[in-house]
Amino acid sequence: MAESQGRYAEAEPLYARAVETALQTLGQDHPNTQIFINNFVGCLQQAIAAGQGDSLSAHPLTQLVLGQLRESQSALE
User: Fold this and answer.
1) Which residues of the chain have a pLDDT value below 50?
2) How many domains does the structure of the chain reveal?
Protein backbone atom coordinates (compact mmCIF):
# COMPACT_ATOMS: atom_id res chain seq x y z
CA MET A 1 0.00 0.00 0.00
CA ALA A 2 2.79 2.44 0.83
CA GLU A 3 4.30 1.96 -2.63
CA SER A 4 1.00 2.66 -4.38
CA GLN A 5 0.83 5.93 -2.43
CA GLY A 6 4.34 6.95 -3.49
CA ARG A 7 5.83 6.25 -0.04
CA TYR A 8 8.77 4.28 -1.40
CA ALA A 9 11.03 4.84 1.61
CA GLU A 10 8.43 3.05 3.75
CA ALA A 11 7.82 0.21 1.28
CA GLU A 12 11.47 -0.47 0.41
CA PRO A 13 12.58 -2.09 3.71
CA LEU A 14 9.52 -4.34 3.64
CA TYR A 15 10.37 -5.49 0.13
CA ALA A 16 14.02 -6.02 1.11
CA ARG A 17 13.00 -8.14 4.08
CA ALA A 18 10.60 -10.17 1.91
CA VAL A 19 13.37 -10.83 -0.62
CA GLU A 20 15.82 -11.90 2.10
CA THR A 21 13.25 -14.20 3.70
CA ALA A 22 12.31 -15.76 0.37
CA LEU A 23 15.96 -16.32 -0.53
CA GLN A 24 16.61 -18.01 2.81
CA THR A 25 13.48 -20.17 2.87
CA LEU A 26 12.65 -20.87 -0.77
CA GLY A 27 15.96 -20.38 -2.55
CA GLN A 28 16.94 -18.16 -5.43
CA ASP A 29 15.34 -20.24 -8.18
CA HIS A 30 11.88 -20.54 -6.65
CA PRO A 31 9.19 -18.72 -8.68
CA ASN A 32 7.88 -16.87 -5.62
CA THR A 33 11.37 -15.61 -4.82
CA GLN A 34 11.61 -14.25 -8.35
CA ILE A 35 8.29 -12.45 -7.87
CA PHE A 36 9.55 -10.86 -4.64
CA ILE A 37 12.75 -9.76 -6.38
CA ASN A 38 10.84 -8.31 -9.33
CA ASN A 39 8.50 -6.40 -7.01
CA PHE A 40 11.47 -5.06 -5.03
CA VAL A 41 13.26 -3.89 -8.17
CA GLY A 42 10.05 -2.32 -9.44
CA CYS A 43 9.66 -0.38 -6.20
CA LEU A 44 13.22 0.91 -6.47
CA GLN A 45 12.72 1.87 -10.12
CA GLN A 46 9.58 3.80 -9.22
CA ALA A 47 11.39 5.54 -6.36
CA ILE A 48 14.17 6.62 -8.72
CA ALA A 49 11.64 7.82 -11.32
CA ALA A 50 9.85 9.83 -8.62
CA GLY A 51 13.13 11.42 -7.51
CA GLN A 52 13.10 9.56 -4.20
CA GLY A 53 16.05 7.24 -4.77
CA ASP A 54 18.20 9.13 -2.28
CA SER A 55 15.60 8.73 0.48
CA LEU A 56 15.84 4.93 0.47
CA SER A 57 17.59 3.03 3.23
CA ALA A 58 21.24 2.04 3.42
CA HIS A 59 20.21 -1.62 3.49
CA PRO A 60 22.93 -3.56 1.62
CA LEU A 61 20.47 -5.24 -0.74
CA THR A 62 18.84 -1.91 -1.55
CA GLN A 63 22.17 -0.24 -2.20
CA LEU A 64 23.35 -3.13 -4.37
CA VAL A 65 20.25 -3.03 -6.57
CA LEU A 66 20.23 0.78 -6.72
CA GLY A 67 23.82 0.72 -7.90
CA GLN A 68 22.98 -1.81 -10.60
CA LEU A 69 19.94 0.19 -11.72
CA ARG A 70 21.94 3.40 -11.93
CA GLU A 71 24.71 1.68 -13.89
CA SER A 72 22.26 0.24 -16.38
CA GLN A 73 20.54 3.60 -16.73
CA SER A 74 23.89 5.33 -17.34
CA ALA A 75 24.75 2.78 -20.02
CA LEU A 76 21.54 3.64 -21.86
CA GLU A 77 22.29 7.36 -21.93
Assistant:
1) none
2) 1
